[in-house]
Amino acid sequence: MDFDGEVAVVTGAGKGIGAAIARALSVQGAKVVVADLDGAAASEVVNDLPKGSAFAAEGDVSDESFLQELCDRAEREFGPVSVFVANAGVIGAGGLDASEGVWDLSLDVNVRAHIRAAKILIPKWLANGGGHFVSIASAAGLLTQLGSAPYSVSKHAAVAFAEWLAVTYGDRGIGVHCVCPMGVNTDLLNDAQLGGDEGELAFKAVTTAGAVLDPADVAEAVLEGIRTGTFLILPHPEVLEMYRAKSADYDRWIGGMRWYQKKLSGSPGE
């Protein structure tokens, strides 16, 4: 795919992976909508891009009315949206003690925002000849996330929804791409440490499992995956071997994760 002249919407693009993807798309000639709950951060990203090639939008991407407004404005200013990157996410640390509010926020931002965006875009893409839906999920959606039940569950759901989209619409001109990195140097990762013992466990699990990548590395992998029509985009290639090991012997994998959790939490005798 040649991104020159394409119209892309990137959510959660004020910082981190989203900002890196927005910049990478712009470098390739795309018109970019930089959406974020933090409007000032989104505007800073736009200020770094060629004048007239992007605009910032402040709002909650789990709100369907905001998503509709976002896509409508993109079409008015640049043309029909052809690439949608569902990147906005929350960590949602906690286990059985996580509040209903934490669960609702995790599911709304990490999953339902994807569903709501697809409901808006897929019918248009079917009518107009296609488009690309990019779900920024997580390796936690293929494996799990120690220390965070809401994150694990919502990211598994994000992967499942992306799979369903690809199966249902992949033969009808819709490209679907699911991105599952491990550790990336973003506020989302670093803020996990602030979530008490479980947040600290989540942070340790991610940062000790493999290299912590720069957001630009993930952006490069995403654009290459879109170009090649790849569904499962793995900025950390080792995730595939971990996933294969999980599927080959589930009980052994769960035992290994229990051992890893004890080791990271410093349980006696570990």
Automatic annotation (TrEMBL):
Organism lineage string: Bacteria, Bacillati, Actinomycetota, Actinomycetes, Mycobacteriales
Keywords: Oxidoreductase
One of the Pfam families matching this protein, by short name: adh_short
Protein name, per record: Dehydrogenase
GO MF, one example: oxidoreductase activity
Signal peptide (UniProt feature, chain positions): none
Organism annotation: Hoyosella altamirensis
Family: Belongs to the short-chain dehydrogenases/reductases (SDR) family.
